């Protein structure tokens, strides 16, 4: 079926409201926009489905949400999981509550038990709820840190992790069996609540989650010990962390918390920021003004669904400096190992997990400290799989930290997704620990470089938007696969890993071996300098991401190498 045929089918459908039809009429003469919205359905990426909120099979709307939920329902019923049910949560984005209720309605109309939160909650609380209720699956309506035009659909399985690629393929196949314009069962919400098949979770459930988070504190007394002096500024960036992050801070002893009031109210338009992403320094502007006025040690910001956390800490001159996701991952790993060992809490089988695009300093820390490190694909579900395997052996207490360079961290096994509520708490604890020793987090980072060597990273994003962008991203990745780069700047490529083809090529000897991993659209280059370049299309945004991972004996040389590599990679990926 051509995109124009599908477009006309939607336009002529009685299931659409006048407003929805008017939206379609407005793009009638825009072939590229119609193709973008109607040529292909949304596909599961690193964090579920994600797209702009318009009419069309390639967008987030009440029709595609219902159709996808029918796919989830089919999977749940095939496992006999109707009574175990599905947990549902949503964030502050426009339409999130409505999409969550559509999902609940579809499931309940199929005879599947539903647990749905009464208002917005952090993504990790959904993961926790799946495990708490013994539900077979979970759904979270969120587009995380994307711009306000986006929304998304994250699907979870019984272990609390997002569904794996095989399960996503099953859901996609089942979804395709249902007409996207079928709205039957989507108005079942009130009836479902009345019948009891839908259970609405109020804030009393939060206590279960909060207690699980608090239990992961390594040494909660650290905050109380410096509570009179420690000052923190916090912003939820108009999202789901607005309530529980301050609550957890108070419970571990923080006395001086200053919130960014302009960003404390949940708002899907995110009026104070261009993008509600704590990776971007500009979202901290309002917080910096407050922090400078009150003399804060730290500024913490969580994204709209409160699974990512960004931090700015005071530098040597008193100015606020961004702590990158890689730097925070290294700080947390070193701190957690050292503290747990000191307190007698470190397991003999202690392990940590990171994504393949995250800092190599984690290797150095883990090997020096005698801790096992696992490297997995991008996507926290892969970190969750490693934790699940240990849990199956009764060794979940051996888990120290899972992290991704994109500001996602988890330090406990109560959930299987990154948790900004918990990570914010541990970051606060770590800040207090160093404050007692007259150090800031920036001082602590300098100490890491002295201890383990100078490591640095950079991520370069190449946006390729629109329907043409889809094909361009495919062409770029295909061209790189067909022609392995000989070098990046002065460094030669000695190994090229193509995870989609499942092969590792030794460019010196010409030998080829298998990766031994499931296919993924990732290219990974090892240089003779020991540094690495990774290139992959984003699973959540219309762009190609380039990761530079490097180390050197001094910071000046490191900065020069990273700049050189980034420029070369940018040229190669811009064909």
Topology (elements, then pairings):
Elements: H1 3-11, H2 18-25, H3 31-38, E1 49-52, H4 62-78, E2 86-90, H5 96-109, E3 114-117, H6 123-133, E4 137-141, E5 150-157, H7 165-175, H8 189-195, E6 198-201, H9 206-214, H10 221-225, E7 231-235, H11 241-251, E8 256-259, H12 285-294, E9 298-302, E10 309-314, E11 320-323, H13 325-342, E12 351-355, H14 361-369, E13 372-376, H15 380-392, E14 399-404, E15 408-410, H16 420-436, H17 441-452, E16 454-463, H18 466-482, E17 487-488, E18 491-498, E19 503-506, E20 512-514, E21 523-527, E22 532-537, E23 543-552, H19 555-572
Parallel strand pairs: 2-3, 2-4, 3-6, 7-8, 7-9, 12-13, 12-14
Antiparallel strand pairs: 1-5, 4-5, 9-10, 10-11, 14-15, 16-23, 17-18, 18-19, 18-21, 19-20, 21-22, 22-23
Helix pairs in contact: 1-3, 4-5, 4-7, 11-16, 13-14, 13-17
């Amino acid at each position: 079926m051509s995109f124009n045929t599908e477009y006309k089918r939607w336009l002529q459908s009685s299931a659409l409201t006048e407003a929805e039809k008017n939206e379609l009429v407005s793009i009638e003469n825009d072939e590229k926009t119609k193709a973008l919205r109607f040529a292909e359905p949304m596909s599961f990426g690193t964090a579920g489905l994600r797209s702009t909120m318009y009419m069309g099979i390639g967008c987030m709307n009440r029709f595609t949400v219902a159709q996808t939920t029918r796919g989830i329902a089919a999977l749940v019923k095939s496992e006999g999981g109707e009574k175990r049910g599905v947990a549902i949560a949503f964030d502050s984005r426009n339409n999130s509550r409505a999409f969550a209720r559509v999902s609940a309605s579809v499931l309940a109309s199929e005879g599947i038990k539903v647990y749905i939160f009464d208002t917005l909650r952090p993504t990790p609380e959904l993961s926790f709820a799946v495990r708490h209720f013994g539900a077979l699956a979970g759904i979270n309506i969120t587009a995380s840190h994307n711009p306000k035009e986006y929304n998304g659909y994250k699907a979870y399985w019984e272990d609390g992790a997002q569904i794996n690629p095989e399960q996503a393929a099953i859901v996609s196949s089942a979804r395709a069996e249902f007409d996207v314009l079928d709205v039957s069962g989507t108005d079942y919400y009130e009836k479902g609540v009345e019948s009891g098949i839908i259970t609405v979770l109020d804030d009393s459930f939060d206590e279960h989650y909060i207690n699980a988070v608090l239990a992961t504190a390594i040494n909660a007394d650290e905050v109380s010990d410096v509570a009179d002096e420690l000052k923190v500024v916090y912003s939820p960036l108009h999202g789901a962390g607005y309530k529980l992050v301050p609550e957890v801070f108070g419970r571990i002893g923080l006395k001086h918390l200053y919130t960014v009031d302009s960003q404390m109210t949940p708002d899907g338009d995110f009026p104070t920021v261009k993008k509600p992403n704590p990776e971007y320094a500009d979202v901290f502007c309002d917080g910096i003004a407050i922090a400078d006025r009150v003399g804060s040690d730290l500024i913490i910001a969580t994204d709209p669904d409160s699974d990512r956390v960004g931090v700015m800490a005071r530098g040597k001159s008193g100015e606020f400096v961004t702590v990158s996701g890689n730097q925070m991952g290294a700080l947390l790993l070193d701190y957690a190992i050292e503290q747990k060992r000191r307190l007698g809490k470190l397991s003999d089988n202690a392990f940590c997990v990171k994504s393949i695009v995250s800092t190599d300093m984690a290797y150095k820390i883990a090997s020096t400290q005698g801790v096992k490190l696992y490297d997995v694909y991008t996507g926290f579900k892969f970190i969750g799989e490693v934790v699940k395997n240990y849990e199956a052996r009764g060794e979940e207490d051996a888990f120290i930290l899972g992290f991704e360079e994109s500001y996602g961290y988890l330090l406990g096994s109560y959930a299987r997704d990154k948790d900004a509520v918990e990570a914010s708490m541990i970051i606060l604890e770590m800040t207090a620990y160093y404050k007692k020793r007259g150090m800031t987090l920036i001082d602590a980072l300098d100490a890491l470089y002295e201890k383990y060597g100078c490591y640095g990273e950079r991520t370069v994003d190449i946006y390729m938007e629109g329907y043409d962008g889809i094909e361009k991203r495919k062409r770029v990745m295909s061209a790189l696969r067909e022609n392995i780069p000989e070098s990046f700047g002065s460094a030669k490529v000695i190994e090229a890993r193509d995870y989609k083809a499942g092969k590792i090529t030794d460019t010196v000897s010409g030998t080829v071996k298998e990766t031994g991993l499931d296919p993924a659209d990732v290219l990974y280059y090892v240089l003779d300098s020991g540094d690495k370049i990774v290139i992959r299309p984003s699973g959540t945004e219309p762009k190609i991401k380039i990761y530079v991972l490097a180390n050197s004996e001094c910071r000046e040389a490191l900065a020069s190498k990273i700049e050189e590599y980034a420029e070369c990679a940018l040229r190669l990926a811009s064909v």
